[in-house]
Structures are given as C-alpha cells and as structure tokens.
Specification:
The complex is a heterodimer.
Chain A: H1 2-22, H2 30-41, H3 44-50, E1 55-60, H4 70-84, E2 88-93, H5 106-115, E3 120-123, H6 129-138, E4 143-147, E5 165-170, H7 172-186, E6 191-196, H8 201-221, E7 230-235, H9 249-258, E8 263-266, H10 272-282, E9 288-290, E10 307-311, H11 314-326, E11 333-336, E12 351-355, H12 361-375, E13 385-386, E14 392-394, H13 402-406, E15 415-416
Parallel strand pairs in A: 1-2, 1-3, 3-4, 4-5, 5-11, 6-7, 6-8, 7-15, 8-9
Antiparallel strand pairs in A: 10-12, 13-14
Chain B: H1 8-38, H2 43-55, H3 58-83, H4 91-109, H5 116-143, H6 149-169, H7 202-221, H8 223-233, H9 235-240, H10 245-272, H11 283-293, H12 298-314, H13 317-322, H14 328-354
Helix pairs in contact in B: 1-14, 2-12, 3-7, 3-10, 3-11, 3-12, 4-5, 4-6, 4-10, 5-6, 5-10, 7-8, 7-12, 8-10, 11-12, 11-14
C-alpha cells in the first residue's frame, strides 16, 4: 500500500512538471507560429518571394526565455526588434546548453533555426563562443551576433576576423557602479557583500566596478573614510546554484547578512540574494539586496530591493539587424554604454539602472547626482588604482583603456575575496 | 499432474509481458496528450514535429545517432552493474572522468610528433581508464567501506562536476578569458573523423554497437554473466555456492566504468572537441532510465535508447515551431519510465492471481 502511495506521488509530480513544461512559451498563438514556419520550410527562395519584406532572425538563449535574468533580457530585446522593424520575425530556442540538450551543440541548433528560415542568428552567451565561431565560418551567408564575446574586437586579445559576425555587449560597468553607489548610500554597517558567479575577466571587472561606485559614493557623498568600507566578494563557482558543486548562493547570502554585511549585490543569474533579504526582512532585520540583468528583477521584493542594473539589448539588436536587412552590415565589436541623457530610455540606452522601492529618497538624490557626474565625464577607472596584490594597475591620473578594463587581471586593492580561480 | 515451464500457459504469459509494456507506452502518450490539451497546445502537431525533427532528413538522423552512441554505451554499462544488483548512480561522474582523462591526454600529446590517430587512440583508452578509476572508487566504497553505491556514486558525481569546472576556469583555462565555452578546442586533426557533411562519426557508432554486442554476450552467454546475475539475485546464496561475490561486484563496476569512460571520450573526441562544463550531457542518468525501461534486457537497449535520442533531437522543433517548451521530451521519458514501473507492478499482481497456487512465480522485480 505504501508503495502505491509512493507511485501516486511520483505520478502527480510528473503531472505537475508536464503542466509547467507545456505552458505555451509566448503570446503568439501556436498555430500562427506553426503555419509561418511551415511556409518558410517549404523553400527559402519561395518564402522570400512571397513575402519579400519578411526577415527571420533566430535567437539561441542559454537559459529559459522567462528566467527573469540574462536570457529574458535577450528574449524581450527580440520582441522589441519584432515591434520596431517591419517584417522582422523572431524564432528562438531556449535552454541551449549541453545539460538541457544532451549531445547538441549551439552550432547545430543554429542550423535548425536556419532550416526554419532564419537569416541571422543571435548567440546569447559566453557558453556558445566556440560554436558561434564554428557556425559563422561554416555559414558565411548567415549573419551572426554573438553577445558578450570579443572575437571580432580587432584590439582584443583573441581577435579572429569573421566578416559575418558582430559582437555586442553592454557597458554594465556603469550599472554596477550605480549598484555599488546605492549599496554604499544604504549600508548601516559599512559592509557590502558581492555574490559572485565564477571568476573570469568579465565577472572580475563587474565586481570591481561595483566596488569603485561604492567607494566613491561612500567617501564623496557621505564623507566617510574609504578604508572603513568593507567590500567582500564571494564566488559561488557558477552562474547559478548546482547543489553539491557550487557554494549554495542562499547560504552565501545568508552568511553575508549574518556577519554584518547588510547589503548584498548579486552578480549571479538567479535571485537568491533578494529572496534571502526578503526573508530576513520579514524577521525584522535591516538588510537589502540588489539583483542583476533584467529590468523587472525587483518585482515582488519592494521592501529590500535597492534597484537593479539591467541590460537593454533591444536598440543594439535593432540597429544591427537593420544593417543586415539594409545591406550596410559590417563586422564590428560594440561595447555600448548608457544614454547619459536618460539611462532608462528603452530606445537608446544599452544599460540602465532602475532605483528600487527600498532606496531612500536621500539616497535617490545622491544616486542621481552620481549618475549626473558620470554623464558629465567622471571616470572611476582612473589612477591611482592598485590591483589586489598591491601591484600598480593605473598610475596617478592614468585612465584605463577598454582593454585594461575588459581584461582586468585581478580584483582591486581594497576588495576582499578571491581574484583568480584555481588557487 | 506437473506442468513443465514450457506448457502453453507459460507461453501465454510470455506474450502478455510485451502487451503490458505497450500499454505503458500508450498510457504515457495518453497522459502527455491530456497535458498538452490542458494547456491548449495541439498534441498531434507536437508529436508530428518531434517525428519530423528526428527523422525528416539525413542530417537529423545523423544528429540523433550522435546522441544514441554515448547513450547506448552508458545504458549497456549500467546493465552490467544492474545485473550484479547494483545501482551505479555514479555512472554520470564516470562519463565525466572519461572526458577529463581524454582531454588530459589530448592536451599532453597534441604538440607531440605522434600521428593523430595514435593520439586519439591513446586519449580514448585514457578516457576508458578514467571512467574505470571513478567506478572503482564507487566500488571500493561499496565493498570495503560499506558505503551504499547510490550515495557513493552521487558524491563522486558532484566531485566530477566540480573538478571539471575547476579545470576549465583554473589550470586548463583558455588564453585570455576563462570561458563557459570550455577549454580551447582541439585542432581538427584530433577530432574523430565524421561522415562527410554530418556530425556523426562512424567510429562512435561502431564502438557503441560493439559494446552492445559484447555486453549482450557477456550477460547471456558467459559463466561470468551468469555468476554476476546470481550475485545480483541473491548475494548470500551466491556466496554460499562459492561465487566470489565482492570480486564480481567490483568487476561489474569496472566494466561499467570502462564503457561510461568511453562515452565521455566520445563526447570529447567526436562531439565537443574540448572539455565543457556539462560534458556528460546527462547520459549517465538517461542510461539508467533506459536500462530500467528495458527491464534490464540488453537486446532492447538499442531501440529504446534510439527512441530517447529521437525524442531529444525531435523535441528541438517544439519551441521553434510551436513555441512549446522542449522539456516535453524529458517529461515524456519520465512518464514512460513511471508507467512501465507501474504497469510492471500491476502485471505481477495479475499474474499472481492467474497462476495456480502451487506454481512458483519467478520474481523479476528488483526494487
């Protein structure tokens, strides 16, 4: 009898999983998508003749399209392009990673999108770096956008000329500076925790940016001693929690909060820091958190969310896809910053920061002042700055080049935490 | 009047089993269909798209076989440990270690003057060794440490994944930025040759089929296989009959590890050409599912693993064409296993009632 109950439970679990899995993934009706796809498979040439203005672009998303993080930001940018470019139609494939799709490679999946009529493919993650090169070189007639990569950066460390590829990345450094500033303006203990993913150049420079922003607002606006600010990075080892493999982000956030770090800035793909802050807040503790990636990430955590630095991929995707349609495409590396006239303008700004409901009015005023100074030319990547081990990174008055920032070799002096993995 | 095992009634029972399994398949499909209807998706179109995605052209069939080869290897691998009554959950980590050892040897030798075929061969042998070493650890924990192989295996799986990540972002970091994309890809000379224009390597297929045949013969036609089954059915009885039980259990771990390691080696040499964070693709766990589904019969491993591979490749079309989540394939696989277990339970109940009380029931249940 007990066995039967166990089986019933298993069955119900499967039932629930299936319900969740089958939820239609988009607002478009299934039949509409189906017919359109059948049309385009009936022959690329015929389809283009029938509807000459249609331009199908494909998107490969590393995570679920609705992850409220990195992948959703890309997915919504795709919808933005559909809205703003007449004839543009998106087809996409999410969970593109070997754990979710055994035995497949992003290059192979990109070919599936091409088979459905895509003439441009967006690879949305560092995971797909090699595959995007392989695919772009094998399909010179298909346009390729590789987000977050540096392959076609002529001044980069790993330059490969590929005519049909464009790299796009947002200057999230600014977003993280604002996050750091908001944290410094709010902390009661002078201790800020940074919940880091894995250690590489990108994650290092983002953690360092948050520190620079925090230190500036801490000392310039609040008049505190920079040395009194504690900024600690704890890397969990991956972009999200893998039980048994990574450090548990919930546990790490909890440790921060329990040891006097009252603001945690998240650098990972998931929202444990925010969730944990909410839980502790409900228990009466004065703690805050700052999520990452997606414009809507603060939703549901009004009492603890200080704001969110987010990517707005729409404008860059629109312009780049437009150039493919017009025939003005050139291979290039884009590292797009905020629109300083309005960092939250959905049509012009590649990076933004939405202040959260938990940020005090006074802090909002300082943050606005900080954003104004950045817009006016304040550059926090200016020397004197030392690396964590004390070696000189930037001499007094020296301004970091893009390469120095992109390939930041260590955390900065004044930050606690591991600089290089595998040590 | 005594009836021999080959009386008509016994034969009828033999025929009933596959009918029950068919019923399980239909139930799983029915359930999935109901789910699809419940969320307002067109079930027929969904199934058609899965079929089309898997079988519509040479390319997709080849892609399916790319999945099939390593899956078949892990499946027949765990059939050996299942025969010895062991749940080798650690097979996942054994695939990973196979991939790590293969990558290691490729990295060591890629600059050497050795001919590429020899480097690949050595790397793949190293991969098998890596899988076997990891399996031996689980086996040693079980036989000498008294650690249940499920817990030992799970622990070793975690260690294997952590080791992979550490290598990719630490010692084996690519020049420039350590990347989720894995270690630097190997030069094309060190790839297992593929059929022209396809991603499928005939070597993968050949090795998988060879392994299938070997395991089938091993379990069916050898003294070792028979003893292994004896250990699996009743360890104490086997021991009393003079079968060295722990040696047999250890041997089954090692053999499974060799095959899982080979699957990992194929992932590196034939599919990804480098070490990536989730190099095992979950083939270890999938292999366990397939093995349960085929009721531990090697002969059915090939078609059922192919069915799983087809679901995986075919379901890629779901989000593209229907904007449906493609984890549908995983759910269908899970449901299938559940229903097969359920139906098997029901079958045994029914059989028990049908038989006259004097006839003993061969117990095949392994739970």
């Amino acid at each position: 009898m007990r066995k039967n109950i166990f089986r019933l439970v298993l069955l119900l679990t499967a039932f629930a999983m299936l319900l969740a899995a089958c939820k239609p993934a988009a607002t478009e009706t299934a039949t509409g998508g189906g017919t359109a796809a059948t049309e385009s498979t009936s022959g690329g040439g015929a389809a283009t003749e029938a509807a000459p203005e249609e331009f199908v672009f494909g998107m490969l998303l590393v995570g679920p399209y609705n992850d409220r993080g990195w992948s959703q930001a890309h997915y919504e940018a795709g919808l933005y392009v559909e809205e703003n470019l007449p004839g543009a139609r998106m087809i996409y494939l999410d969970r593109v990673n070997p754990a979710d799709r055994p035995g497949t490679t992003p290059a192979q999946l990109a070919e599936e999108l091409v088979a459905q009529g895509a003439r441009l493919i967006i690879f949305n993650s560092d995971d797909m770096k090699d595959s995007s090169i392989e695919f772009a070189q094998a399909h010179p007639d298909i346009f390729v956008i590789m987000a977050s990569g540096d392959q076609v950066w002529a001044e980069g460390n790993a330059y490969i000329p590929i005519d049909n590829m464009v790299n796009i990345m947002g200057r999230m450094e600014y977003g993280k500076m604002m996050a750091g500033c908001a944290a410094a303006l709010t902390t009661q203990t002078g201790q800020i925790g940074y919940l880091g993913p894995l250690i590489n150049d990108e994650t290092r420079r983002l953690a360092a940016s948050a520190y620079l922003g925090a230190r500036y607002c801490w000392s310039e606006y609040l008049g505190n001693d920079p040395a009194a600010l504690q900024f600690k990075v704890t890397w969990i080892g991956f972009w999200f929690n893998i039980p048994g493999v990574t450090a548990d982000p919930t546990q790490v956030a909890d440790d921060f909060f329990n040891t006097g770090y009252d603001v945690v800035i998240s650098g990972i793909d998931t929202t444990e820091a925010l969730t944990e802050a909410s839980r502790l807040r409900a228990a009466g503790e004065q703690v805050w958190a700052i999520p990452y990636d997606f414009i809507g990430a603060c939703e549901g955590a009004d009492d603890v969310c200080l704001g969110v630095p987010y990517f707005n991929w729409g404008p860059a995707y629109l312009a780049t896809i437009q150039s493919a349609v017009n025939g003005t495409w050139t291979s290039n590396f884009q590292w797009n910053g905020p629109d300083w006239a309005d960092i939250n303008n959905p049509d012009t700004s590649a990076v933004g920061f939405i202040p959260g409901p938990a940020l005090s009015d006074e802090a909002v005023a300082f943050l606005d002042q900080f954003i104004g100074e950045l817009a006016g030319g304040l550059n926090l990547w200016t020397g004197p700055l030392n690396l964590q081990d004390g070696t000189v990174y930037l001499a007094d008055g020296e301004v970091a080049t893009d390469q120095q920032i992109w390939y930041l070799p260590q955390l900065l002096e004044g930050m606690q935490g591991q600089s290089v993995s595998g040590e | 009047m005594n009836r021999s095992p080959h009386t008509p009634s016994r034969k009828r029972i033999d025929w009933i089993t596959p009918l029950f399994q068919l019923a399980a398949l239909l139930l799983a499909l029915l359930f999935t269909t109901l789910m699809l209807l419940a969320v307002g998706a067109p079930p027929l179109q969904a199934y058609l798209n899965i079929l089309k995605g898997a079988f519509s052209n040479v390319n997709s069939v080849a892609n399916m076989l790319v999945v099939w080869a390593p899956l078949l290897l892990t499946t027949v691998g765990v059939l050996i440990t299942f025969s010895a009554g062991l749940w080798n959950i650690g097979v996942e980590g054994q695939v990973t270690l196979g991939a790590i050892f293969t990558t290691w040897v490729l990295r060591l030798l890629q600059e050497s003057a050795l001919p590429p075929w020899l480097i690949i061969l050595l790397a793949m042998l190293a991969g098998m060794l890596g899988g076997a070493v990891w399996a031996a650890l689980a086996g040693a924990l079980k036989t000498f440490g008294g650690v249940n192989e499920i817990f030992g295996g799970l622990g070793l799986n975690f260690v294997a994944t952590a080791l992979t990540l550490w290598l990719i972002f630490g010692p084996w970091k690519r020049p420039g930025t350590g990347s989720m994309s894995g270690t630097l890809p190997f030069p094309e000379t060190l790839w297992l040759p593929t059929l022209s224009g396809l991603r499928l390597s005939p070597w993968s297929l050949a090795l998988a089929l060879l392994a299938l045949a070997a395991v089938y013969l091993l379990l069916r036609g050898t003294r070792f296989g028979l003893r292994l089954k004896a250990v699996g059915k009743n360890m104490r009885a086997a021991y009393l009959l003079g079968i060295p039980t722990w040696q047999h259990m250890m041997a089954s771990f090692l053999l499974c590890g060799l095959l899982a390691g080979l699957a990992g080696a194929l992932q590196v040499t034939a599919v990804y050409h480098r070490l990536i964070p989730s190099i095992s693709s979950g083939y270890g766990f999938l292999g366990l599912l397939v093995a349960m589904l085929v009721n531990y019969q090697a002969i059915w491993a090939a078609p059922v693993a192919l069915f799983f591979a087809a679901l995986n490749i075919g379901s890629i079309q779901l989000p593209i064409v229907l904007r449906l989540d493609s984890s549908l394939a995983g759910v269908l696989q899970g449901l299938l296993v559940l229903f097969v277990l359920l139906v098997e339970g029901a079958r045994q109940q029914i059989m028990k009632r049908l038989r006259p009380p004097d006839e003993s029931v061969p117990v095949e249940e392994r739970t």
